[in-house]
């Protein structure tokens, strides 16, 4: 086998290299990126860098729930910058952009079927802190993906094929064990009472990529299943196939 056909082995990441300007784009394995982040988050309280101390103090005195407008990009950007500096040592600075998109549902493709569990979230029980907590979990989740997307190697000597398999064809679709380990490290740091980083609310990155909003309680509903297309519903009785209009 010629040397140009040999599988490329990405470089490891020394602890001191996990910072902006020293990390090389698309140069490392998923496992080494995960290990570098975990090592960074596992350092003792005495090893906090000045930037982290400054950001944590700013966050502490401004309050954990300082989002005046949930759809205001400027307010959200503040938390993105804080998370980037505290949890990722700023290594994704300049490589991501925060935007809001309106989701549109087209009438030609609005049919779907689903099973209902017999309960649903009760809109009468809303919790503002849980709403903001869920809102901030989403950027943390995506920032974790950005870390791997920016620095994972995609060369033609095996890495590109592995990257495509992890992102597009694997069981977890972009959430392999390396990503889950990194996400767990972030959650552990925030949830551990003795952690060096404590920002005042619980982060939950949904390691299986299941976005579970925690803003309402639950209530019982009559239907056990439904097939819906715009204005139809199917009666849940076993022997009934009656279709009713809303």
Automatic annotation (TrEMBL):
Q: What is this protein called?
A: Uncharacterized protein
Upper lineage ranks?
Eukaryota, Fungi, Dikarya, Ascomycota, Pezizomycotina
